[in-house]
Amino acid sequence: MAKANILIIDDEHDIRNLLSRIIRLEGYEVFQAETGKKGLKLLRQEKIHVVVCDVKLPDANGVELVPLLKETQPLCEVILLTAFGTISDGVNAIKNGAFDYITKGDDNNKIIPLIHKAVDKALLQFRVQELEEKVSARYRFDSLIGKSQPIIRAVEMAKKVAATDTTVLLTGDTGTGKEVFAQAIHYESGRKSKPFIPINCSAIGREILESEMFGHKAGAFTGANKDKIGLFEEANSGTIFLDEIGEMDLNLQAKLLRVLETGAFLKVGETKETKVNVRIIAATNRDLQKESDQGNFRLDLFYRLSVFNIHLPGLQERRSDIPLLADYFIRILTTRMNKKPMKMAADFEKALVVHKWKGNIRELKNVIERAVILAGSDTLTTDCLPLDFLYDTDSSETPDSLKLAATEKIHIRKVLAFTRGNKTRAADLLGIGLTTLYRKIEEFGLS
């Protein structure tokens, strides 16, 4: 039997105790109150799944008490008991939000099965709320990592627009976290309990993309054997995230523009418009103004999409955030791989900070994942990085000494790999003495 808490509110001591014993035998935890006031107090103190409440109480009418009980704990279910049931009371009880309304004595065989049903419903509701809270916590703005000014500015702008229904255009290089921002905007908005549906406009061909977005009627084209609901219709009252919007076909852009202007569209093969209430967040790594000038993107659509533009900085614009992001990925990945906690060596962290990061956060995550897999201890060192990683640094950020040491270390590692660990042969190829090679192997931690 599922664990659940039941509250009995009844001023008759014997009935209250009898019900408590019966319900406890079913495996439930039972709380008691003899008045409506005490019942509400317990509801504020304990997590209650089902309330079994008498209609006639010394300080309240049970039917009128239901809204207060539901207001105190909205997810709990209320079963009303009465000695003299009336149809009008029963109707009012259900209208007020009661799960059911039954008569004492006549329905003794119904009370336990009814409690089971009410518990099942309440537990499901509590579980859904718990999952929604976890999703919201995962995607809220507080979960976005970074303390640099560029990312703080982007988050502040996103927070301001989240509370509105304004269309948002997210710009920035590939891998800067545009979908993460879109999700945060959605889950901080009034639409958070409705669907968030992402569409990658570059991953689907034009004909298929139109059908995926707007749906189609049976027979609209070869293979359309039945009606299909599009993603815009599925996202009704929620948010559509159009990633890589710059890749969208010009004809399809015209259809999207109509949705933005009227909230209506035609399914493929349909003659009657479908109305939706959808917020649109678009993202691109292209310069849409430039694309419009070149005739590759509709200028009117660009203006409609860019009502509120947020630029997401690349890692080169927020280098101070790289250690924070790396530490986050290390914690996530070591947990996922069932490994002990790991830390970064100073040279490893410095190498991350000065790397060019053409792939931004996505590339950083991949590099950290590889390093966690290769690590032979609880400390991540530069040995865990790809061979050519330290060559790809930003010269404006990298001290000459670090660049020289990094290049020397990589070269020695490659020569040792070529000679299969034969240090005498490696020293000959490098043109240095064997003693010097051993010193450098120790210095760079290559042994």
Structure description:
There is one protein chain. The chain has 447 residues and is an alpha/beta fold. The chain has three domains: 5-136, Response regulator (Rossmann fold); 141-313, P-loop containing nucleotide triphosphate hydrolases (Rossmann fold); 317-444, Helicase, Ruva Protein, domain 3 (Orthogonal Bundle). The protein has 18 helices and 16 strands. It has helices at 13-25, 36-45, 62-72, 87-95, 108-139, 149-162, 178-187, 206-214, 231-234, 250-262, 288-293, 299-305, 322-336, 346-354, 360-374, 400-418, 423-430, 434-444, and strands at residues 5-9, 29-33, 50-54, 77-82, 100-103, 168-171, 196-200, 215-216, 228-229, 239-243, 264-265, 274-275, 279-284, 308-311, 343-344, 379-380. The strands form five sheets. Strands 2-1-3-4-5 form a five-stranded parallel sheet, with helices on both faces. Strands 7-10-13-6-14 form a five-stranded parallel sheet. Strand 11 (264-265) and strand 12 (274-275) form a beta hairpin. The two termini are 59 Å apart. The mean pLDDT is 87.
